[in-house]
């Protein structure tokens, strides 16, 4: 007579397919998951609290470390929030806006490449991992040429950008984007037709559109449940309204649908990058707000007025008026929002981050309960969580 | 039909893998082969000198004010000719996050970031760099710039005697 008691096991925090330090307490009946409880907080650094003691410029490097696979997008969301708080969102120069969109979409490709790599690796297709990281390396090089760091970019500034694009980079981005559809075909060739891949992800991690909305899911995970919602189109920022792109929606509600959507999103991102490259015209990269933006280095070393502004902005920061703002941007993982509350001082009184992964993780128990333990790995992969963002 | 599709899916994947075998590898063998980072790369911080060999740093504390993790500390001192310099200058690389805000803040272009990324160490205390470790005999990224040739007290030329400078104003004079 076999015993039928429910067994509780820990999956993580040291488990290769939990994408970091996520602990899932699984209650199993045989191989069926009865209950899944995510335990988070192993990577908690208190970024929201740290932000209360830093000037608005100093918070920027912290936002790199939220979703470290898409740092430029976090920077962008935070910058837009600060700019809205200051009321200078209309003064951002055209070139800065275009470069922001360009890099945001490059970041989306980069983040989705890590997603497809890790998702496939978790399920057992190791080759895709290596190919996707090869392409990611190109984007890392572009990042490094622009910002000086491969991951923690810290490139955008309040009112624009910290430096102009280096010479010849536009051509390099164009070459990379030219090659990208072929690479996506390679991943699809390795995965889409493969019977094992299909069996592992079709009808796995099913969540209906209503449930996804109720749980606050956003990004490709929401669009995979047939909900047509993309902040780039529905609440445009940084001039996204001027770009022609398709929002990919699939009502399959399963991991397979989300897989197809992310691949399509990479192709759409390539289209946006082409449009952005065409729009890129020489021009200023920082807004004309001398009380907010650092003066150009030339003014600092050559003129006393520039030097005074430089000293004032770096030592004191700038003081937005009393008030509160919320800005959400469409991260590769979903909606990332920054809520800033200013009490009129040079530091935010409160910064609240709405991380996409944290809220998408809420849907995990709903998606895995009743399925097999091996499907948990597929579902973690399809949610595309980043623990840096979940634990903050 | 299903079987054919299954075989096709697998064979196609094998074909892609096979094809890639004849491509040049993109990896490098790290400790033997080293990658040269791009010019903007942000790694180990140095203090540079001006073209005349003097220290650029004037101990204005801007880098330490801009640092989001408070890893830079220094003590300002004054030389006999009135020129300020850092008596000691310390960067704690165990705290540094290489964000580059100090470089952006420096008004004399003294503090700069190099592309030396190999600063791992067994003892964390060895990562606390003092001024002797930081100061290099080079001008860094802006080779011609000397702060005292543009402004400041008379170190190179008498006060106000530089090419792009106006003579000091006589504060007791009423004339414009």
Describe the protein in words.
The complex is a heterodimer of chains A (392) and B (176). Chain A starts with 6 loop residues before the first strand and ends with a helix. The longest helix of chain A has 30 residues. Chain A has 392 residues and is mainly α. In chain A, 52% of the residues are buried. In chain A, 51% of the residues lie in helices and 12% in strands. Chain A has a domain of 245 residues: Orthogonal Bundle (Cytochrome-c3 Hydrogenase, chain B). Chain A contains 17 helices and eight strands. In chain A, the strands form three sheets. Chain A has a three-stranded antiparallel β-sheet. Chain B is α+β, with helices and mostly antiparallel strands. Chain B has a domain of 113 residues: Alpha-Beta Plaits (2-Layer Sandwich). In chain B, 19% of the residues lie in helices and 14% in strands. In chain B, the strands form two sheets. Chain B has a three-stranded antiparallel β-sheet. In chain B, strand 2 and strand 3 form a beta hairpin. The termini of chain B are far apart. The interface between A and B is large, with 44 and 40 residues.
List descriptors.
heterodimer; A: 392 residues; mainly alpha; Cytochrome-c3 Hydrogenase, chain B; three-stranded antiparallel sheet; B: alpha+beta; Alpha-Beta Plaits; two-stranded antiparallel ribbon; 5 strands; elongated
Largest interface: A-B, 44 and 40 residues
Helix content of chain A: 40-55%
- Shape designation of chain A: globular
**CATH architecture verdict of the domain at 57-205 and 234-246 and 258-340 in chain A:** Orthogonal Bundle
SS strand fraction of chain A: 5-15%
Total number of β-strand segments of chain B? 5
Reported for the largest beta sheet of chain A, the result is: 3 strands, antiparallel
- Model regions low in confidence, pLDDT < 50 over at least 5 residues of chain A: none
User: CATH top level of the domain at 45-157 in chain B?
Assistant: Alpha Beta
CATH architecture of the domain at 45-157 in chain B: 2-Layer Sandwich
Main β-sheet, spatial strand arrangement of chain A: 1-2-3
CATH superfamily grouping of the domain at 57-205 and 234-246 and 258-340 in chain A: Cytochrome-c3 Hydrogenase, chain B
Please summarize the sheet with the most strands of chain B: 3 strands, antiparallel
Strand residues, percent of chain B = 5-15%
Number of helical segments with 4 or more residues of chain B: 4
Rounded average pLDDT of chain A:
87
The CATH topology of the domain at 45-157 in chain B corresponds to Alpha-Beta Plaits
DSSP summary: helix tally of chain A = 17
Average pLDDT over all residues of chain B: 84
DSSP summary, beta strand count of chain A: 8
Low-confidence stretches of chain B: none
């Amino acid at each position: 007579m076999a015993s039928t008691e429910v067994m509780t096991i820990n999956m993580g925090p040291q488990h290769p397919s939990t994408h970091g330090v996520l602990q899932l307490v699984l209650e199993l009946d045989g191989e069926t998951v009865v209950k899944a409880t995510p335990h988070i907080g192993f990577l908690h650094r208190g970024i929201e609290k740290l932000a209360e003691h830093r000037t608005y410029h100093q918070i920027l490097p912290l936002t790199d470390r939220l979703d470290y696979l898409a740092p430029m997008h976090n920077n962008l969301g935070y910058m837009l929030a600060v700019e809205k708080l200051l009321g200078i969102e209309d003064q951002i120069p055209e070139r800065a806006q275009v470069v922001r969109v360009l890099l945001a979409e490059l970041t989306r490709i980069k983040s989705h490449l890590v997603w497809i790599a890790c998702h496939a690796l978790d399920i057992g297709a190791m080759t895709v991992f290596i190919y996707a990281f090869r392409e990611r390396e190109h984007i890392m090089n572009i990042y490094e040429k622009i910002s000086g760091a491969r991951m923690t970019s810290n490139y955008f500034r309040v009112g624009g950008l910290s430096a102009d694009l280096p010479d010849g980079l536009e051509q390099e981005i164009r070459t990379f984007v030219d090659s990208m559809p072929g690479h996506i075909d390679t991943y699809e060739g390795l995965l889409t037709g493969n019977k094992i891949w299909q069996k592992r992800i079709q009808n796995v991690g099913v969540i209906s559109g209503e449930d996804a909305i109720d749980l606050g899911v956003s990004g490709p995970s929401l669009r995979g449940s047939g909900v047509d919602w993309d902040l780039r189109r529905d609440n445009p920022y940084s001039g996204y309204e001027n770009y022609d792109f398709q929002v990919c929606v699939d009502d399959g509600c399963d991991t397979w649908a989300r897989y197809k959507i992310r691949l399509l999103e990479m192709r759409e991102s390539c289209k946006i990058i082409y449009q952005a490259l065409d729009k890129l015209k020489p021009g200023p990269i920082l807004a004309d707000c001398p009380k907010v933006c650092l003066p150009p280095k030339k003014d600092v070393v050559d003129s006393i007025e520039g030097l005074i502004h430089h000293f004032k902005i770096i030592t004191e920061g700038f003081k937005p008026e009393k008030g509160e703002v919320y800005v959400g941007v469409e991260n590769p993982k979903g909606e990332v929002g920054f809520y800033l509350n200013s009490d009129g001082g040079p530091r935010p009184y409160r910064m609240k981050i709405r991380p996409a992964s944290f809220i998408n993780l809420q849907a995990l128990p709903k998606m895995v309960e009743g399925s097999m333990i091996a499907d948990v790995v597929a579902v973690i992969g399809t949610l595309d969580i980043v623990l840096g963002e979940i634990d903050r | 039909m299903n079987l054919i599709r299954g075989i096709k899916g697998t064979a196609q994947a094998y074909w892609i893998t096979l094809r890639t075998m004849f491509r040049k590898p993109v990896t490098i063998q790290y400790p033997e082969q080293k990658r040269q980072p791009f010019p903007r790369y942000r790694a180990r911080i140095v203090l540079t000198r001006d073209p005349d060999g003097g220290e650029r740093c004037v101990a204005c504390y801007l880098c330490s004010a801009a640092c989001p993790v408070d890893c830079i500390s220094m003590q300002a001192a004054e030389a006999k000719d009135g020129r300020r310099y850092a008596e000691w200058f310390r960067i704690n690389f165990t705290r540094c996050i290489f964000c580059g805000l100090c470089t952006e803040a420096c008004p004399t272009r003294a503090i700069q970031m190099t592309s030396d990324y190999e600063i791992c160490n067994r003892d964390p205390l060895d990562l606390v760099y003092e001024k002797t470790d930081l100061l290099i005999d080079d001008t860094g990224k802006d080779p011609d710039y000397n702060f005292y040739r543009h402004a400041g007290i008379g170190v190179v030329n008498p006060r106000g005697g530089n090419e792009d400078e106006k003579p000091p104003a006589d504060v007791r004079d009423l004339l414009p």
